[in-house]
Amino acid sequence: MRIVLAGLATSHPYTDARTLTRHAELVVWEPDPERLRRFTDEHPAAKVTGSLGEALATGPDGVVLTVPNPGVPEALARVLETGVPCFVNKPAVASRAQLDALDRLDVHDRVLSGSVLRFAPAFAGTTVDPGEVLAVRATVRHDVGMWAGGYNAWQDTPGEGGGTMVTMGVHGVELLVALLGPDVRLVGAAGAKRHYEGLRSEDTGVMALRWGSGVTGTVEIIGVSDDESYSVTVHRRGGSDTIVIEGGDDPVKGLGYEGTIEAFLSMVRGAPSPVPWEQTRAILDVLVTAREIT
């Protein structure tokens, strides 16, 4: 099996590769020499290519795509031409223009994108009866202080990577849509800088959601935090249930990275994406709309 890692724009493909290397020959393309060196130091057997086209010409069985958000639609279009399965690391887009460009693509049923938390053992397989649900809440605790120092400035730039509202907010929206489905719209959002004044975006945020069924939801984004954790609370008449997702002793497994790659490899073997594109599109629309109004 041959897997192309097309871009190393965030930390995620480095983590993905640790699982993939147990199953496949790795081919990598990344224009930034320092990021590429960091990768090849860990994976010296990986075949290095000089362009996306060269990487795709190696005849991969699947592609993990991780490029800055403005470049995702064009890069994904080139991957789609090959017909092979593709996992697009989150979030696929971060602005309305990027989403419009994505909508013009013919996305097939072996394209997966979204938060790895959907596949975390603490959450995977969780279901609810929407008729019993009064409201839901997702809380994302992930420190964004690295951006305040200039690291990956494109992620912190609202018009490029979407900032904290999009890049961290995707985790909360993803978990709630996984529970209640894609018939959802944003009804309000707000963000603020409470600690990291050097940011281009915000370090805290909140979104209010409403499903067609009438269920309401809240996504809280806490970007100033000593610990990384995520939780989902489901409120019913008889009380509330909360699921907590943490890295634990094995963050690759505990946060869902391993499960995500297992889902991707199932696609490589012929299965459709376990996440319908309708859900991914709904999540992206909520995030883009939140970014627009904040």
What do these coordinates show?
By secondary structure, this protein is an alpha/beta fold. It is built from twelve helices and twelve strands. The strands form two sheets. A six-stranded parallel β-sheet has the order 3-2-1-4-5-6, with helices on both faces. Helix 4 (72-82) packs parallel to helix 5 (96-103) and helix 9 packs across helix 12. It comes from Nonomuraea phyllanthi. This is GFO/IDH/MocA-like oxidoreductase domain-containing protein. It holds the Pfam family GFO_IDH_MocA_C3.
What layout of secondary structure does this protein have?
Elements: E1 2-6, H1 12-20, E2 25-29, H2 33-42, E3 47-48, H3 52-56, E4 62-65, H4 72-82, E5 86-89, H5 96-103, E6 111-114, E7 133-141, H6 145-148, H7 153-156, H8 163-167, H9 169-180, E8 184-192, E9 204-211, E10 216-222, E11 229-236, E12 239-246, H10 251-254, H11 257-268, H12 277-293
Protein name: GFO/IDH/MocA-like oxidoreductase domain-containing protein
Organism: Nonomuraea phyllanthi
Pfam family, one: GFO_IDH_MocA_C3
